[in-house]
Amino acid sequence: MKQFQYSRPATQQAVIDAINKPGAKIIAGGTNLVDLMKRGVTAPDKLIDINHLPLKNIAPVKGGLHIGALALNSVVSENKLVVAQQPLLSMALKAGASPQLRNMATVGGNILQRTRCAYFYDTTMPCNKREPGSGCGAIGGYNRMHAIFGASDKCIAVHPSDMCVALVALDATVIVQSKKGTRRIPFADFHRLPGEHPDLDNNLAAGELILGVEIPDNNFAKNSYYLKIRDRQSYAFALVSVAASLELEGNTIKNARLAMGGVAHKPWRLVEAEKALIGKPVSAETFNIAAQIAIQGAKTYGGNDFKLKLAPATITEALKHASGLV
Amino acid sequence: MRTGSNSIPSSGGMSRVDGRLKVTGAAKYSAEYEVKGLTYGVLVGSTIAKGTIKSIDIKRAERAPGVLAVITHLNSPKVPGYQSATNTPKGQIRIFYDNKVVYNGQPIALVIANTFERALYAASLVTAQYNNGEHQTRLTDNLQAAFSPKDDNEYKRGDPDAWRSAPVKVEQEYLLPSEVHNPMEMHAIIARWDAEDKITVWDKTQGVKDTQTNIALTFKIPTENVQVNSRFVGGAFGNALQVWPHEIAALIGAKVVKRPVKLVLSRTDMFTSVGYRPHTWQKIAIGATADGKLVGINHHAVGQTSAYEDFAEAPADVSRQLYACANVATSNKIASLDIGSPVWMRGPGYATGCFALESALDELSYQLNIDPIELRMRNYTDVDPESGKAFSGKFLNDAYKLGADDIGWSNRSSKPGSLTKDGWLVGYGMAGGVFVADREPATVRATFTDGGKLIMQTAVSDIGPGTATAMVALAADTLGITAENIRFDMGDSSLPPAPQQGGSTIMSSVGSAVFLACKQLMEKFKALGDSSDYAQLLKQNKLPKLEVLIDSKAGTEVDKYAMYSWSVHYVVVHVHPVTGVVKMEKVTCVADSGRIISPKTARSQIIGGAIMGIGMALMEEAVIDHRYGRLMNANLGDYHVPVNADIPQINALFVNKADTNINPIGAKGMGEIALIGMAGAVANAVYNATGIRVRDLPITPDKMLGALPHVA
Ligand SMILES: Cc1cc2nc3c(=O)[nH]c(=O)nc-3n(C[C@H](O)[C@H](O)[C@H](O)COP(=O)(O)OP(=O)(O)OC[C@H]3O[C@@H](n4cnc5c(N)ncnc54)[C@H](O)[C@@H]3O)c2cc1C
């Protein structure tokens, strides 16, 4: 690991100033950043510790729920308001990592965690995300965990977060602050597809600090489910995960939200499949149709061919759970 | 002596004599010793699989803060033992010897600094240029090039083709991926030169004596001038059975900087440079009569090895011995690839072989429509079909019954995919395991003091099974004294010789020596007077202590009997009918390994083996990107082993009947059989649940999709 400086600027304003300097990087829980530093993937000159900033609050705001960027994944997942109003988020968080990691990991860090692609982590291997122009090792290589949607010939990595799959389904907004003031970024627009620039994971500008996320109120609390399929029962990233939320009127689906993890460079919202659910009766058939629509346009790379079967199977199963069919 | 009964209480037996030391951190492992003047080494690995080092730039590393030396093949002092091997031996790589690269990740430089962090940073500054060779790392592309290793064990009895004309046949191929030992403790050594020809090491090893001999040979110094300390070992599973190049590297480094060097492997090095269970292809053909008598078995295996060592297991050997069958042909071949050498891993060969044989037998049972246990009983044998010798002790039929009752085998459906619970498919599976029961020479010094203390000493290691605990329990039982008054010294090469802790031999070997030492002490006490208060007897006779030294080894019984331990694993799995997720519901493992000396540690051993078997069955797989010949999941985030959520109720049962022919204590090893068979049992249960037969481990959800039965 390269030598680096560490500082803890006293105020939010001082943090903003500090992160505007070249080579500076925020550290929150450090569960992702420190790993990347140890592996030589990232080598910041200065770590700016933000853990003391007052960004841990979870509180109702007008029309929604605000969750501070430094709220711990474990705390959010157990929070009474979250469990009661946004159970999908709680379930997604609990499906992620391990209790020890969730006790360190923050909401801001979770949003900004980087891909787990083995080629990204191994500095002896080609990777356009780590070293633009060096090629994509995963194409033609070990790509069992990789994208089936929205990839490019430069990168087929996936965003590994569970929490973000729930947040994109719930139409959350990310609130960020920079020298220029604060701005709000819809969650669906926060992360990027790789395109020609897989080195950019998201649309956060240099020098911006995440303050928190806001989730608008909804009527999904009763019928939400997060289903994650992985290679072991806990402590593994998703092969495929599905966030499903339904609003039911009798047996009819009044409103629906559907998103997938482990399938794209960003948490993957399934808008067309949602449309196919709305107005339909709760039934295995309805869910199968939606699942088939959901995987239209999927492209696989050998090692992840199985996701063409696993993805619709997981969608159907998640919807069954959300609707109470099982 | 406890007598034969399987009613060992699950909570019974002694707790570990070193348990408190271990859970409080007071137990010191090799890397934890404070040695004066210590320096820190970090290895640099190659980034190609095959070729030569064209140039290596160490200047930046040498100039980095705190760096004391950067050692490569260009500046390494000569290792005397390396020089004598004129023609390249197939064996260990000779570290820093020449510019050859034979696998990806091979150590090509050692950076030594005054702190670990500085060494680590400097190591990242070393860069090498290579002349790339063409590498081969995929076993299945190289099956044709497989060859028989030197100790060729192609085997035939009867008519090898007999299976072909049998009325019912199974002919299938099975694949096992490479699996990595990954004990919790990384390999670690502190190497110190005490004089020009004198060495002390604190080293992770399964055999202090073997390590001592090997280091002495490599550096051409007298054996007694090498002191090896390995008091505690945080797991090994076979990967500390030999001296690895990094251990030699630490000694080279200590010579160069003239200070002690500590070298702890990274987790990634643990995947690349200290062996693994070899990726193995197997083909089995079995023929049987309609009433389930085996007519013939063919079992052929090809395992991968490195380009520099003919490492060979014998997976197919299980088919010579496990069942009565007149016509058997087996072969064990290897294919040389440009990868690091494999090494023994828990249940070596047998675990691989039993997965294939016990899967094939299960397949046969469905074709025959005979219950899998019944099929095994119909082919049960009390004599070793290979040698014709009687088994020294075999109660496997008891084990089948015990396990079947415990798992609730009668609830199994013989029709795959027909049993469900809460929307999940339910499957029952079973498979047997077997491992040779060897007894090696062992020497124990036992000293009884007039303070009433017994001190036993032998140079064995305890890599985790609880050897010290079992020896103390055995001595306490034999002498009729309390465990608190007994000390067991080990992990020190200056103690009387003992075998390596490998191959499930220690209970039989060292246990017998401990028992005989206690017996001899008792005889000597008898000569002193008629009392079981030994301390008092010594005082009366004005003796400060009594000491015996026992050399114990196997005798002529090995000519008379075939000696094995057996196990049988039963499992219940749930499989999700839509997503293909496999969940373990229950495991029962029954060991037939003679008398149980230490019930608590025996139970832990069985449970640990079953958990390792869950990993083998459902998740473990070292993945190579063959374009680069490089491991892609060499870390514990990506290479999966079971976590708590994967582990169900595991019942450990014991036949607990003494094997009276093998040794004086009637106990045999159980470290290997705890694992062997487990993966087959899981695969068989998955088939029972779904009708999907997975013949290439691990059984991950992707392999289950497509053909899952419908659940209403
Ligand atoms: C072994 C392992 C298994 C895991 N499994 C899972 C899993 O199954 N599912 C899952 O979802 N996740 C998983 N994770 C990832 C884990 O969720 C993330 O590491 C964690 O959420 C990151 O949060 P952190 O606070 O530790 O971030 P850090 O490591 O501190 O930071 C991550 C990044 O975010 C930036 N950052 C942090 N906070 C802010 C802020 N407020 N504003 C701007 N930038 C900021 C940092 O500069 C850094 O670039 C796993 C991690 C590990 C190590």
Structure description:
The complex is a heterodimer of chains A (326) and B (712). Helix content of chain A is 29%, strand content 21%. Chain A has 326 residues and is an alpha+beta fold. The termini of chain A are far apart. The model of chain A has no long low-confidence stretch (mean pLDDT 97). Chain B is α+β, with helices and mostly antiparallel strands. Chain B has four domains: 184 residues, Aldehyde oxidase/xanthine dehydrogenase, a/b hammerhead (Aldehyde Oxidoreductase, domain 3, Alpha-Beta Complex); 152 residues, Aldehyde Oxidoreductase, domain 4, CATH 3.30.365.10; 213 residues, 2-Layer Sandwich (Aldehyde Oxidoreductase, domain 4); 114 residues, Aldehyde oxidase/xanthine dehydrogenase, molybdopterin binding domain (Aldehyde Oxidoreductase, domain 4). In chain B, 25% of the residues lie in helices and 25% in strands. In chain B, the strands form seven sheets. A seven-stranded mixed sheet of chain B has the order 3-5-1-12-9-10-11. In chain B, α12 packs parallel to α13. Chains A and B meet through α13 of A and α4 of B. The complex binds flavin-adenine dinucleotide (FAD).
